Amino acid sequence: MILIQSISQDYSTSVVIQWLCDTNEDFIRLNNKSFIDQITFSENIFRIKINDKIIDLSQFKSYWFRRGSFDFESKLNQNVEMKIPIEGYLKGENLIIKEAIDHYLLKNVKSIGNYKTSQNNKIIACEVAKNMGFKIPDFIITTEKIELLKFYKKHPQIISKSLYGLPGFLANNVDYSAKTRIIELSDIKDCTDNFGVSLFQQYVEKKIELRVFFLNDKFYPSAIFSQNDVQTKIDFRNYNKDKPNRVVPYKLPDDVIEKLKKINQELALNTGSYDLILTPKNEYYFLEVNPIGQFAQVSLPCNYYLEKEIAKELSNA
């Protein structure tokens, strides 16, 4: 049997499951709304009950950590006064359970991804990539306007990026999400002398952008022609739905593939997506690696059938 951990709205998970159904594979899918309400863990037993279903983790031959998490439903008496905030205590309890389940599964079955490596650190990943021989954009993390001004004077153009994920917020019934954008001098002048921790990066001119999905050191590169459209030039995620960017399969040089393999090994990754840049001078820059990431935008236009490849990997355990 195969265990899949995801979120209910993840389309790619559903497509992988369709492939599993075609080969009559048994599987269980746990979504982000799954609560563990019973658990028994001993030397020979690791059994949990989720949504009225008892699951013996020893019966699984493979495990795919796609997205999300699950929580251990607390049985604590809410009338008991705690010396520490109850939310903090329960968060710690949940963390132990998640890590224990992850460790148990990784030790006994083939896995694609895991809870631990899903927490990506852009700064660490860039440092590792640099040590492996990649060029990376110059960057600064700062809370000080004066330091940002110095960085701005150092580079012809700079951009802002989030350190963790893509934050978003709702204001006046409008959904806003953070994207990469050019920072102008007027933006900096409008800043207060001190602000929240922020990442700023040298803007690197692009010939094409590369999104490279990988599964167990097999790489599926795609080239994104984002530079032909003003709307997508800075960040291809500013999608032009009327005229989408052209996306085609791409062949990476052998030395670039070897560097990516070394990064996988250093960061203990067996799946995810790399974001790279090919400059007009044909230099490869490393931007980041996403251990989770969307892969449909690589799979569909390039005819890689990645969902089928994932299903095969889970089945052939």
Short note summarizing the structure:
The protein has 317 residues and is of the alpha+beta class. The protein has helices spanning 11-22, 86-108, 122-131, 145-154, 185-189, 254-267, 296-302, 306-315, and strands at 2-5, 27-30, 35-41, 46-50, 53-56, 62-65, 71-72, 110-112, 139-144, 158-161, 168-171, 174-177, 181-183, 194-202, 208-215, 218-224, 247-249, 271-278, 284-290.
What does this structure look like?
This protein folds into three domains: 2-112, no CATH class; 138-202, no CATH class; 208-291, ATP-grasp fold, B domain (D-amino Acid Aminotransferase, Chain A, domain 1, 2-Layer Sandwich), CATH 3.30.470. Helices cover 29% and strands 30% of the residues. The chain has eight helices and 19 strands. Helix 1 (11-22) links the parallel strand 1 (2-5) and strand 2. Helix 1 crosses helix 8. 23% of the residues are buried.
Report the C-alpha radius of gyration, rounded: 22 Å
Biggest sheet, in brief? Answer: 5 strands, antiparallel
Average pLDDT metric: 86
Total separate domains: 3
Helix content: 25-40%
Judged by helices, strands and strand pairing, the structural class is alpha+beta
Distance N to C terminus:
10 Å
E-strand count: 19
Number of helices: 8
Order of helices and strands: EHEEEEEEHEHEHEEEEHEEEEHEEHH
Strand order of the largest sheet: 17-16-15-18-19
SSE diagram, text form:
Layout: E1 2-5, H1 11-22, E2 27-30, E3 35-41, E4 46-50, E5 53-56, E6 62-65, E7 71-72, H2 86-108, E8 110-112, H3 122-131, E9 139-144, H4 145-154, E10 158-161, E11 168-171, E12 174-177, E13 181-183, H5 185-189, E14 194-202, E15 208-215, E16 218-224, E17 247-249, H6 254-267, E18 271-278, E19 284-290, H7 296-302, H8 306-315
Parallel strand pairs: 1-2, 1-6, 3-7, 6-8
Antiparallel strand pairs: 3-4, 4-5, 9-14, 10-13, 10-14, 11-12, 15-16, 15-18, 16-17, 18-19
Helix pairs in contact: 1-8
GO molecular function, one term: ligase activity, forming carbon-nitrogen bonds
GO cellular component, one term: cytoplasm
InterPro entries: GRASP_w_spasm
